[in-house]
Amino acid sequence: MRHPKNKVTVKPLLTVKWVNGKVVMIDQTKLPTRLVYVEYNKYEDVARAIKSLVVRGAPAIGVSAAFGMCLAAFQSKARDHHKLLSDLEAAYETLKSTRPTAINLTWALDLTMAKAREGNSVNEIRKSILETSIKMADEDINTNKKIGQFGAELISNDETILTHCNAGSLATVGYGTALGVIRAAKENGKEIRVIATETRPVMQGSRLTAFELKHDGINVSLIPDTASGYVLSQGMVNRVIVGADRVLRTGHVFNKIGTYQIAALARRHEIPFYVAAPKSTFDLKSELKDIVIEERDRTEVIRVGNRLVAPLQVRVFNPAFDITPPDLITGIITEKGVLFAPFEEGIRQIIGPDR
Amino acid sequence: MRHPKNKVTVKPLLTVKWVNGKVVMIDQTKLPTRLVYVEYNKYEDVARAIKSLVVRGAPAIGVSAAFGMCLAAFQSKARDHHKLLSDLEAAYETLKSTRPTAINLTWALDLTMAKAREGNSVNEIRKSILETSIKMADEDINTNKKIGQFGAELISNDETILTHCNAGSLATVGYGTALGVIRAAKENGKEIRVIATETRPVMQGSRLTAFELKHDGINVSLIPDTASGYVLSQGMVNRVIVGADRVLRTGHVFNKIGTYQIAALARRHEIPFYVAAPKSTFDLKSELKDIVIEERDRTEVIRVGNRLVAPLQVRVFNPAFDITPPDLITGIITEKGVLFAPFEEGIRQIIGPDR
Fold first, then answer.
1. CB 3.0–4.6 Å: which of A10, A44, A218, A310 could bond A213 by disulfide?
2. Cα B137–B143–B145 angle (5° rounding)?
3. Cβ(A98)–Cβ(A60) under 8 Å?
4. pLDDT grade for A13, boundaries at 50, 70 and 90
5. Could you confirm whether A110 is annotated as catalytic?
6. How far is B345 from chain A (nearest CA, A)?
7. Which of B245, B283, B322, B327 is catalytic?
8. What chain A residue is nearest to B220 in terms of C-alpha separation?
9. How far is residue B249's CA from residue B253's CA, in Å, rounded to a whole number?
10. Residues of chain B numbered 303-322 and touching chain A (CB < 8 Å)
11. Among candidates B242, B276, B328, B279, which has minimal Cα distance to B149?
12. Mapped to the 3 state alphabet, what secondary structure does A104-154 carry?
């Protein structure tokens, strides 16, 4: 905290919340033109919302899926807990199938399902998974604030930070991971400028990161994804910070398509490249080859809104994520502290043997 | 020509042409949804067309500007050649100010202006610059076919070639530079697949390259710019070929924003990276620091058609070009042959001392 006189507090957006038996979310497909909240009382609608990117961002879809399980528990007409568990298992499968790459989805679903299995009555299970899910949502914000504080210590005053996609309050319950670090640096009184990449094709950078940083009064400039190499080469960036959808025990990071090329260019120009991710994003069991990189629909690429921007019949390759190898990563910022290479030992220490 | 049995001829689109005293162009802002031809009989309209990207691509804007000079010559009410030269000088300035980075614009304007200065009467000047401009247009296609043949010799059967932006028939009078190489390889009977990047923000890859390659029956897949590092890292690409807006005597290449990061990633994965450019794209006089990188309007980034894709008031940085250093370039394909590093000597030999 170098400039306590400038200390400010920002109030970020709340992405997903449990309100009176319903799940309330910002409909992120409507941003940046309209800030619309939607509410769901069926888990099937939550699954659709995850799939169609009404809610996105690894931590946010984890919490949304947990709340989806709560809806399923209240939707269920089960008279006994065996039937309820079987209904919850069906909901688990539906919610899990929505998106394959982010680990937090599976983590959150496994956690609620494990809680449910401990219960001995319908009411007990309902109560326990709702408590678990609300706690998960609350912890998400606390976790991000811890990530923010650890990350903010890395940042000097007057830095320009490049970020890709949206690892902000809109990717989490609130505060954000990569953008949480930026928020914490700002709250600590540091002057920070952010360069946000558009992040085609879904444009989470333009629509979400630019929106939420402006909302919080943080200095942000938008660039096309094609300009990221140029700005990194021109000495315009002091540091890159991104989020993650899955971090393997080796330190390989699955994150939004385009992350890898930014990491490679940052290395070329000797710019520190950081990943901000909570423990729930780590996957110590899987091998690199096991992870499915989601390929999303071609319409994301050939249309923007109703406007056709490519020939209707053109073949499209639209992978949603890529892999950044650990040798391109300067550090991984977690709620337990910042890990530096080699990552394997540090990751094992903070996550423990159980995951 | 390895597979003479498969020899095919493709008929590319004609980007700009002189027809009955008018300049006729494809309006590239309407592609890919509509193939519309526009005609102009005032040089001011040609200048506006260049500025607003109705016509784009370094060779195509060179020829368009030359035809603009012809229109100016016929528009002029001058009774003597001194007055005509002064009218042409005004047109020269207007046309030259449209876009700063591509050298072909200046090259074409200088050539027509020099021709005009040789004339001794209004009619003689009109005739001579029209002949010069039509010859320039014809030569553009011949030049591209030579580039195509030299480039095609580099390409093996069954390659996947990644290209960025549009260095195709739509960037030239016809046939194209980078895509001319691909056309020539196909005409020589080789099986070629193309990966085209979208090329945000103006989307010349989606709108133009995907359109013209499909038009010619060439196998093309479209990827978001964010996926280029991923496809290069996954062994999906055998070769990169791009065009150029300006090549310095050192071999530094100014080309569409995003070229540099692709070149750096290609080098990282040991994939050959070629630039296809006619002699008219070379600038032996300027220093790196002298070249203005055009910054285009923020609306290109925050809007797609009428749809707002970013907060209306967000700050935008929208450079139209970047710089690829010679150490990332495997070869430069010209109508005189393929140059390899170190480029300086080869460039001097093919261009001669006069430019």
1. A218
2. 110
3. no
4. confident
5. no
6. 27
7. B245
8. A315
9. 10
10. 304-311, 313-319, 322
11. B276
12. HHHHHHHHHHHHHHHCCCHHHHHHHHHHHHHHHHHHHHHHHHHHHHHHHCC
**Crossing angle for the helix pair B122-152 and B103-118, to the nearest 10 degrees:** 140
- CA gyration radius, chain A: 20
Which helix (H) or strand (E) segment holds residue A161: the answer is: strand A159-163
- The percentage of residues in chain A with a pLDDT greater than 70, rounded to a whole number, is 96
Measure the CA–CA gap between A217 and A229, rounded to whole angstroms: 26
Identity (one letter) of the amino acid at A271? Answer: I
Q: Is the separation of the CB atoms in A143 and A219 below 8 Å?
A: no
Q: Whose structure tokens read 């390899």?
A: B340
pLDDT exceeds 90 at position A14 = no
Q: Which helix (H) or strand (E) holds B160?
A: strand B159-163
Q: Does A226 touch chain B (CB under 8 A)?
A: yes
Q: Are B27 and B203 in contact (CB under 8 A)?
A: no
Structure confidence by residue, pLDDT tens digits, A85-101? 999 999 999 999 999 89
- Whole-Å CA distances, B320 to A25, B212, B326: 38, 22, 20
Residues 6+ apart with CB under 8 A from B262: B162, B164, B197, B228, B232, B240, B242, B273
Q: What is the pLDDT of residue B3?
A: 43
Q: Which residues of B touch A227 (CB under 8 A)?
A: 257-258, 317-319, 322
CB distance A24 to A71 below 8 Å: no
Cross-chain CB nearest to B317 (options A221, A229, A315):
A221
Distance between CA atoms of residues B64 and B161, nearest Å: 29
pLDDT along chain B (355 residues), means of 10: 46 84 96 94 98 96 98 98 98 96 94 97 98 97 98 98 97 96 97 98 97 95 98 98 97 98 98 97 96 96 92 96 98 98 94 68
Q: Which amino acid is at B331?
A: G
Distances, alpha carbon A200 to alpha carbons A23, B93, B210, B276, in Å: 28, 38, 17, 27
pLDDT reported for residue A28: 96
Residue A16 CA to residue A65 CA, distance in Å, equals 10
Q: What are phi and psi of A221, to 5 degrees?
A: -120, 140
Write out pLDDT tens, residues A207-224: 999 999 999 999 999 999
| Nearest-CA distance B331 → chain A (Å) | 21
Question: Which of left, alpha, beta for B273 (phi over 0: left; psi -120 to 50: alpha)?
Answer: beta
Contact B301 A261 (CB under 8 A): no
Mean pLDDT of A64-71: 98
Long-range (24+ apart) CB contacts under 8 A made by B344-349 are B344/B249, B344/B250, B344/B251, B347/B247, B347/B249, B347/B251, B347/B282, B347/B284, B348/B249, B348/B284
Strand partners, A40: A23
Query: Are B223 and B80 contacting, i.e. CB atoms less than 8 angstroms apart?
Result: no
Return the structure tokens found at A305.
Answer: 């809104």
Residues of chain A with Cβ-Cβ distance to B322 below 8 Å are 227, 229-230, 233
Quick check: A6 pLDDT over 90?
no
Q: Can you tell me the distance from the alpha carbon of B319 to that of B291, in angstroms, rounded to the nearest whole number? A: 13
For the stretch B10-20, pLDDT in tens is 455 789 999 99
Judged by CB atoms closer than 8 Å, whether chains meet at B222 and A32 is answered as no
Shortest CA distance from B219: residue in chain A: A315
Contact A255, A329 (CB under 8 A): no
Among B140, B185, B163, smallest CA distance to B15 is for B140
Question: Residues near B187 by Cβ (< 8 Å), separated by ≥ 6?
Answer: B7, B8, B9, B10, B148, B152
- ipTM for the predicted complex comes to 0.94
Q: Do B317 and A222 touch (CB under 8 A)?
A: yes
Q: What pLDDT is attached to residue B354? A: 56
Q: Would you tell me which residues 33-62 of chain B have a C-beta closer than 8 angstroms to some C-beta of chain A? A: 33
Instruction: Please give the span between the terminal C-alpha atoms of chain A, in angstroms, as a whole number.
Output: 34
